[in-house]
Amino acid sequence: MQHFTNDDAGYLAWVAANPAGHVLNANRDPDPSHFRLHRADCRYVQGTPGNGVRWTHLYPKVCGTRPELEAWVRDEVTDGQIHGCSNCRT
């Protein structure tokens, strides 16, 4: 599992190397109600960022397997909830 904050190059390299992996999109200050889980090949977490500028500045990414990410939220974030992406249907 890897965390990416202000590291778009590292994040995009991870996504390219782990197409079967998962990406957890989070707020900079983790909000228990805002964790969005995506497959690494989802259009919402690769290509051109939605804000047109950067991937990991406003919304840091935690990347790994789905079980790793679920365990991280359960163990590290009080009352954390993961919501699946409506595009990639995680």
UniProtKB/TrEMBL annotation:
Superkingdom of the source species: Bacteria
The name this protein goes by in its record: Uncharacterized protein
Organism: Actinoplanes couchii
